[in-house]
Write a structure and sequence with these properties.
37% helix, alpha/beta, five-stranded parallel beta sheet, elongated, Rossmann fold, binds 3-phosphoglyceric acid
């Protein structure tokens, strides 16, 4: 009987856990749950005898893989898999997967929650501004970016996008203006929303030179990863450009320094983008099916360490 661990420092909703467990029950697998763990040692102990695991932003590094002697597959229930050491997974003969698109709407909706909050001056009672008619630049037109574009149209915003890996005609087919570079995106947008993954190429790529191209009153919204921000450079820019706002779903390392920009900065206390019952159900149950499909039929469709 295969044994599957759900290891979530930030737990799924109860309904998602129930749904995941039902998939494994039907397959005849045992499910074990490790939620809200506070120490890596708890994870190292829990992985010792499992064949498969579902994680969220939980870190799966070489030490975890060393401890997981029976592990054959790890599925990140979500989009970004920068929390898995892919080379170590491959070296340990472990298949790593994600569940692309499953939590995209949830993250996209949060973008607008953050934007309305920022445009209304963080609900401080003063007169704010509306999203209608403003230009929203989407950096990376993947699953989340596309959902952001769809919702932005409901707000009557003008939508632009840049994606180094997505052809302009695909962006234009979605009724979005494709621009030729990141620089152009920041120059031509009132707000830029980040949807790039954290890779060697993107880490610290969002810096003062780029964000400084936003016009007066510009807003940067980050529901992607903190690692893509060059924090010292953005801090310096915000000190110089007192018109700019930064709203983020990922608390920066320099949170206290950013917090000094009162009225121009907000960070959610915990990453909330994918924290909805719907996203948990979609991503969690997709992950469960991917595990069963892999163990029973060798299907590796969403493998990311090929
Ligand atoms: C993702 O990459 O899917 C999101 O960042 C969600 O992360 P979470 O599962 O930790 O909320």
């Amino acid at each position: 009987m295969a044994k599957v661990l759900i290891a979530t420092e930030k737990p799924f909703s109860a309904i998602a856990v129930k749904g995941i467990k039902e998939v494994f029950d039907a397959a005849g697998y045992e499910t074990v749950l490790l939620e809200k763990y506070t120490d890596k040692a708890q994870l190292l102990e829990a992985v010792a005898d499992v064949d498969a695991m579902i994680i969220r932003s939980d870190k799966v590094d070489a030490e975890v893989l060393d401890a997981a002697k029976q592990l054959k597959i790890v599925v990140r229930a979500g989009a970004g898999y920068d929390n898995i050491d892919l080379a170590a997974a491959t070296a340990h003969n472990v298949v790593a997967m994600n569940t692309p698109g499953q939590n995209a709407n949830s993250v996209a909706e949060l973008v607008f929650g953050l934007l309305v909050y920022a445009k209304r001056n963080f609900f401080n009672g003063t007169s704010g501004t509306e999203l209608k008619g403003k230009r929203l630049g989407i950096l990376a037109f993947g699953n989340v970016g596309r959902n952001v574009a769809r919702i932005a149209k409901g707000f009557d915003m003008e939508v632009l996008a840049y994606d180094a890996y997505c052809p302009a005609d695909v962006i234009e087919a979605a009724g979005v203006k494709a621009v030729a570079s990141q620089n152009e995106l920041f120059e031509q947008s009132d707000i830029v929303s980040l949807h790039i993954p954290a890779t060697d190429e993107t880490k610290q790529s969002i810096n003062a030179a780029l964000v400084g191209k936003l016009p007066k009153g510009g807003i940067l919204v980050n529901t992607a990863r903190k690692e893509v921000i060059d924090e010292p450079s953005l801090l310096q820019l915000m000190a110089e450009r007192t018109d700019l706002k930064y709203v983020t779903d990922i608390k920066p390392d320099a949170d206290a320094d950013f917090a000094a920009f009162e009225g121009r900065y907000f960070a959610t206390p915990k990453k909330m983008g994918a924290q909805t019952a719907e996203a948990n159900v979609n991503a969690g149950i997709a992950a469960a099916h991917q595990i069963v499909d892999f163990i029973e039929r060798g299907i590796t469709k969403f493998q990311v360490n090929k």
